[in-house]
Specification:
The chain has 170 residues and is an alpha+beta fold. It has 2 domains: 41 residues; 108 residues, Immunoglobulin-like. It has 2 helices and 6 strands; from the N terminus they run ααββββββ. The strands form 2 sheets. The chain has a 3-stranded antiparallel sheet with strand order 1-2-5, with no helix packed on it. The protein is elongated.
Length: 170
């Protein structure tokens, strides 16, 4: 009579289980890590996009000096509804280049404040279009910036507007 050892048949399966369990666990941990990275990772900032990101750029001394020749005027705020039936705050105005050089890029920083004069929203946007259309000496150009998510804490006063970045034609 031949004895069949039932333990020897399952010993291979028992040895493979820890390996399979480890592989599955590694796949799950990798998937969770990638999901968390995509969820919390901030994309690199594209200076020419109108995504509302704050732009941090070094400005040359000549460009800083030229800022006094740029004027933002005729600022108006309005509200409208977009195609998703969400309320949008629209800032319109005119930029005037009273200097003698052509401005090839121009970004404005717009800051909305709350009731306690704290920053409720601050966004920087390019106003010369995509791709930017230069504004020559003595020219004026109207602009429009739409804000879809102005916080409810906004004090309903005109936001503070300043030139955040400028590039002059060499």
């Amino acid at each position: 009579m031949t004895d069949i050892d039932p333990i020897s048949d399952t010993s291979d399966e028992k040895q493979n289980r820890p390996i399979i369990t480890f592989v599955i666990a590694a796949v799950v941990v990798t998937a969770m890590s990638l999901s968390a990275w995509f969820l919390f990772h901030e994309p690199p900032q594209n200076r020419n996009s109108l995504n509302g990101a704050t732009i941090k750029v070094n400005i040359s001394q000549a460009e800083k000096d030229y800022l006094s020749k740029l004027f933002v005027k005729d600022i108006k705020l309005s509200r409208a509804e977009n195609f998703l039936h969400q309320e949008v705050t629209i800032l319109t105005g005119t930029i005037m280049n009273s200097g003698s050089q052509t401005v090839t890029e121009l970004d404005l920083a717009v800051q909305f404040s709350d009731q306690m004069d704290q920053v409720a929203l601050k966004e920087t946007r390019g106003i010369l279009g995509t791709p930017p259309v230069p504004i020559g000496p003595g020219q004026e150009r109207t602009f429009e910036i739409a804000f879809e998510h102005v916080p409810s804490s906004w004090n309903m006063q005109q936001p503070t507007i300043r030139v955040a970045h400028i590039t002059l034609r060499p």
